[in-house]
Amino acid sequence: MVSTGRKQASGDAELRRRRAEYADERERGNFFHPRAESCPWCGAREIGPRIRLADTRQGKPGTFGMDECRSCGHVFQNPRLTDAGLAYYYRDVYDGLGREHYASIAERSRPAYRKRVQLLDDHPRSGRWLDVGARQGHFCREARVSLPGTTFHALDPSEEILRAQDRGWVDAGECTPLLEFAEDHVAEFDVVSLIHYLERTTSPREELSAVRKVLRPGGVVLIELVNPHSRYARLHGRFWYCWMAPQNLHLMPRHNVRELLEEHGFAVSHVELGAANKPFDNLAALLTALNHHLPPARPWPWLSRGGGPAGRVLRAGAMLLAGPFLGLAFVLDLLLHLVIRRGRGGNTYRIVAVAG
């Protein structure tokens, strides 16, 4: 009993410490740039609000506007988060308190990882592969099973990628930004993968320029991005999971990305549309709405206060009652995917391009 009491007291003290750190950072932080008056993609001034979002994943405070360019269709966060704001909202998502939750999601994504690798079946893949925005390294771990002769190098801001190197999931892991990394690794890689990475960068144009720099002539880039024209984006509104607010800064229509690749000397060899769809929209929207409206599952340190025992009981009861609806949404997603995968829609698209 004494040991349990000490552990509880230590946990409470740690929660208070982290809560004070989050509160202090929030109070001191300059989290937003001035509002942009033109499209960051094409420069047009014909922009307007698309949707206002909250952080529905972690429930961190703040609201985030997404504007859309009426000229090129680019969707972007406006005003955009500063580096301090991004650091605040990324903390404890893929590492720290969010490490285990993300790892459980990544473990269930192995079929999607294998499909990405299969897209390169018609391209030479042996040699060196750079995965940018690798998070915990799960994709590299899966890919190297299929490609035993390939060396995997991975970049991610989180130190979780260093743990991936220790586990042997990647051959080398670094927290170095791609723009900096590219200066010292010109023409060293045969493949570069950007899996839901460009959406979260401040300048996708500069990032693709860096990709071209690190690729050898004839090298391949594999890109996976959220499709902002998905019908579910309109249907589910702010609870569409793929908004991923406030992490996603740019949601780019595929024709924009294709044009940008060609500007940087790439030849697009394959575009995967409906087949790239991830069949979870309805289930994820329902879970996102529940998570947003119900008391928190835990007294997270970024919240001013926890939900308390009564709140946790309410949450557990509501989730139990929602069980049949969640099951129905899961089945509906699988059935609709049979149709979506044969079309040109879906929540995700993939592009493979070859460096000239």
UniProtKB/TrEMBL annotation:
Keyword terms: Membrane, Methyltransferase, Transferase, Transmembrane, Transmembrane helix
Xref: Pfam families: Methyltransf_23 (PF13489)
GO BP terms in the entry: methylation
Entry GO MF terms: methyltransferase activity
EC number, UniProt record: 2.1.1.-
Residues that span the membrane, as ranges: 318-340
Keyword check for Repeat: no
Name of the molecule in the record: Class I SAM-dependent methyltransferase
Originating organism: Amycolatopsis heterodermiae
Taxonomy of the source species: Bacteria, Bacillati, Actinomycetota, Actinomycetes, Pseudonocardiales
